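Title: Prediction job returns without error message
Component: structure pipeline
Severity: low
Priority: P3
Assignee: unassigned

Description:
Job completed but the reporter wants confirmation the result is attached to the right record. Sequence as submitted:
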Amino acid sequence: MSMSLTEVMDRIGLPDEAAMAAARQRLDRLTKPPGSLGRLEELAVWLAGVTGRVRQRLDKRTVVLMAADHGVVAEGVSAYPPTVTAQMVANFLRGGAAINALARQARARVLVVDVGVAADLPPQEGLLVRKVAMGTRNLAQGPAMTREEALQAIEVGIEVAGEEIARGAQVLATGDMGIGNTTPSAAIIAALTGRPVAEVTGRGTGLDDEGLRRKVAVIESALSLNCPDPSDPLDVLAKVGGYEIAGLVGVCLRGAAERVPVVLDGLIAGAAALVAVRLCPRVRPFLLASHCSAEPGHRYALEAMGLRPLLDMGMRLGEGTGACLALHLLDAALAIVDEMATFEEAGVDDRS
């Protein structure tokens, strides 16, 4: 079922407090000191709040990998040429990328969505072609997208997430591919948090010192030129964002609306989630920060949303790789709830 942005935001409710209380009660009766499994217990309670179920399995999980190109690459902000976006999409579809290896290990399906790749990609197994345009315009010379294009890309994400949930997906993990996309992500985070550009901008694909200085200058110039309004997240997204970022905004919103856990990846997902939360604050409790990227802007995006990452592995690849690692922790949290014995069942004395 397709939904507009307004419709999906109106549908987002609150976490299930009764299910969370029941999860806490069961965890406290298991054969361990209360709270001794730390964040695994927090994860179990969070999952109960999102789904409304205490004991469950999340066997069907999808990495929704949004792919798009960026006109700002013309400014020399990436160590790789823009042709790599389409080439990496082909690699994903052959199963040869890091996300494929980690998704196989995490028992997750990888779905690649062409929302703005600057090449004609034929539809094939594992690829959805929902292209809004052949990449964004150069945000250093004007708005990256029109407001209508940004909205269209969000609604691609809303629709694709809804289709995956209808197919049975019980968890959505975010993935991305787009050469140059750390530049719009840093621009979004700077615009929405008020942080200096130099603080939120990293080396992306491996820029040297001169390249990093150029990237910072490009983002500063783009923000000055386009004047994105931080009180209007859609304006920020349109002026300095990207199509894959917009698509992931839609994934976050639809997951929350359908009470399906959304596991965020790194910087690009963090920028998308920040836009989603600013559009509809009720989305936040349905989002899980898998890890903290080595890209500096990600930490500030998570702080702005009040999200605490599960892992800090020094990763900065994207693709959904960090999100796949977190799926193992979700499995562990659910195993504790479902497979551990209570004090009564085990015949073990509880605390006095």
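Comment from assignee: result matches the submitted record. Residues 61-329 form a domain with the Rossmann fold fold (CATH 3.40.50.10210).
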